[in-house]
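Reviewer comment 2.1 asked that we show a complete input and output for one of the modelled complexes. We chose the FE2/S2 (inorganic) cluster case, as it is the one discussed in the main text.
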Amino acid sequence: MNWFKVPGVVYTQEPFIKKVVAGGKSLCLVGYNGEVFALASRCPHAQEDISRGWCKDGKLVCPIHRFSYDLQTGRGSPGQNDFIHTYPVKIKTNEIYVGFNTWKENLINLFK
Ligand code: FES
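Response of the prediction step:
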């Protein structure tokens, strides 16, 4: 796994939702209940910028059609039959890092 620092964002306990770029990927970074989550920046339903949404009950809600996604797993709410990609997050001395699989790890995961 390769870890990339999220530039311009410092960890705090405060809730937030921000669109960021780390390691060349556009992400939606969410601070919720003191934890930080990294998700794809586009809603899988119709590609809206999901960082314009809000959090409710541990889910990120898209502002357009209100589909919602679990912050931990990325799983869509019942009936949606979809998911948003999530990425692991590490906090190191108030800096936030997001992990991306290497191409070899992605290839191995394809055959699991
Ligand atoms: S674009 Fe997000 S719910 Fe439709």
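The mean pLDDT is 95. We note this here for comparison with the apo prediction described in Section 3.2.
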